[in-house]
Amino acid sequence: MSEQANEPFDAVAAFESILSDPNGAADDREELETDAETDEVEAQEDPEDDASDESDAEGDSDTDEAGDGEDLDEEVLVTVKIDGKTEKVALKELRNGYQRNAVFSQKTMALAEERKAFHAEQEAIRQERAQYAYLLDALNRQVSTATAQEPTPEQWEYLKQTNPQGYAIAKLEFNELRDKQAAIHTEQQRLAYEAQAQQAAEFQATVAQERDLLLQKHPEFRNEKVWQKARKELREFGRDVMGFSEEELNYAADHRAVSALYVAMKAHRAANAKAEPVKSEAKRVPVGSVAATPRKPNAFESANKRLKSSGSLSDAAEALRHLI
Q1: Which of 10, 130, 167 is nearest to 79 (CA)?
Q2: pLDDT tens track of the chain, all 324 residues?
Q3: How far apart are CA 140 and CA 183, in angstroms?
Q4: CA 140, chain centre distance (Å)
Q5: How far apart, in whole angstroms, are the C-alpha atoms of residue 185 and residue 219?
Q6: Which H or E element spans position 78?
Q7: What's the whole-model pTM score?
Q8: Residue 145: helix, strand or coil by DSSP?
Q9: Which residue ranges are recorded for the region named Disordered (predicted)?
Q10: Residue 171: half-sphere exposure toward Cβ, Cα within 13 Å
């Protein structure tokens, strides 16, 4: 056991050795061949003892193999590298981790398929809604053209006096047109509401997908406390240093933009930490001495000042260049 623990080997090879156990199988074959030769000599002298010995040997072999299997699961250590650090992990724990990773991969693939199906369904709904909205708009134009020809109050009164039956029929037709126009407007409002709801749902799905990609790139954000702290700091850095508006930060859904902002924030902190002078005991300035020369702004501060005043992409790139 101690020799196995001190010899690092590949995790995949370790799994293969557990499942197939090639070394153990070779040793068993050698022992069986030796036992078989001995049993042949003894069989000539005492057949009954030979049968008894074979039965005992099989029972002992099964017991030893079962015991070795338990020892391998509990005791054998594998030297692996985790995040660049060499650690020793029990084979049983390593196997369990492999199984958990396989389950996670399956769930990730299933989630990706669900999202793909979701986007396809949303696209089909969007196309159907667009076609329906087009037909509603065409119908609304026809109805509007017809209602525009409605008689004036004076004409209605004249028609009522001169042709009561024609007046009743025309009045009914125009009332139906107005009802139809009101129904069209109601349906158009409903479609607009559904389109907004679909857009919000798609945005939420995009945010969830981008968040998963961000977690893959920065696993430390899987800790909810770490993420909440980082999100607050990112908003403050993006607003106060980079000049983003609250609305722009609220709709920052691209994980690449968030990751770039995170990298820039860490670089900004590192630059400020390096630029901080070593604190020393303050010296009193004699009365009448020349005042200290004010500190000149560094290149990043100058570029950032230009960015805040202009808001242009070129000034933003220049500020990031000095920052990183």
Answers
A1: 10
A2: 444 444 443 433 333 322 223 344 444 444 444 554 555 545 454 544 554 555 555 555 454 444 444 445 556 666 766 656 777 766 666 666 666 666 666 766 776 777 778 778 878 888 888 888 899 999 999 999 998 999 999 999 999 999 999 999 999 999 999 999 999 999 999 999 998 988 888 888 888 888 898 899 899 999 999 999 999 999 999 999 999 998 888 888 888 989 999 999 999 999 888 766 655 555 555 555 444 455 555 676 777 777 667 666 566 667 666 665
A3: 10
A4: 44
A5: 50
A6: strand 77-82
A7: 0.42
A8: helix
A9: 1-75, 275-312
A10: 13
Cα–Cα dist 274/59, whole Å: 72
Q: 245 with 315, same domain?
A: yes
Q: Which stretches within 218-279 are classed as H helix?
A: 224-240, 246-250, 255-275
- In a shared domain, residues 263 and 238: yes
Tokens 């069209």: give the residue: 184
Mapped onto helix, strand or coil, the DSSP state of residue 240 is: helix
Residues in the chain, how many? 324
Could you please report the per-residue DSSP string of 296-313? PP-HHHHHHHHHHHH--H
- Asked whether residue 73 is assigned to any structural domain, the reply reads yes
Domain span holding position 205: 110-210
DSSP 8-class letter at 82: E
* Ramachandran area for residue 243 (φ above 0: left; ψ -120 to 50: alpha; else beta): left
Q: Does residue 180 form part of some domain?
A: yes
Number of domains composing the chain: 3
With tokens 């692996």, the residue in question is: 80
218 touches 262 (CB < 8 A): yes
Torsion sign over Cα 105, 108, 110, 113: negative
CB burial string 270-284: b at 16+ within 10 A, e below: eeeeeeeeeeeeeee
Are the C-beta atoms of 265 and 324 separated by less than 8 Å? no
In a domain, residue 23? The reply is: yes
